[in-house]
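Sequence, structure tokens reproduced for reference:
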Amino acid sequence: MAKQDGILKIEGTLESLTFYKSTDGYRVRKKGGVSRNRILHDPAFIRTRENVSEFGECATAGKLFRQAAGSLISRAKDGKLTSRLTSVLSKVKNNDLVSPRGQRSVAKGLETAQGKSLLKGFDFNGKATMDSVLRSDKALDTATGAISFSGFKASEHLSSPSGATHYSMQAAVLQIDLAGKTYGLSASEIQNAALAPEAANFSLEPPGLPEGNGVLLYLLLIEFFQEVNGVQYPLKNGSHNVLHVLETA
């Protein structure tokens, strides 16, 4: 894969070259490769078929994750979320130690402690990670999903974007059963306050843990706003907002 340079940017196919635009800029690659029919039936490509099958499984699992947390993700995501999440879920799938190659699943991978741990620390918005935005201690109670802050100083403990006057936080617990294709979400009330230097103590507690099988993800959402004439407006379509997986169970 090569990068297009120069003033004129091309999209389309020219002889053996394909020109296209990606999120990383304009690219060019050589056209060709093995036919689809050969990949599907030639014994020499059995490993390829296995990899394609498992990639499809990871992509499907990623779609269910995005649907399950859609109301939160819409407020804190980046343009590469789909590919980043699929990549992590592929590593989770590798922890399925009971299924044959080509049939390993994310669901079975999440039945292991190692598989669950791979989702811990995941940021749905790669451009605004938890570590880059929040500089404060917090306590998570996995029995209730509550996240508590003590002596929190918003102007000091949050790395806020230029123009922000207010912030909000929300705790949530996501339950997702990939095998059964079901999910549930329980979210706390939103804590909204000015980016002020005064210390505050507060707790974000969902009304209860969602019921069901599968894995639990404990999430924290941080958003930023600018107040104008008493109305708070989101900043830059949420590009500075954080949605982070604190813990899994």
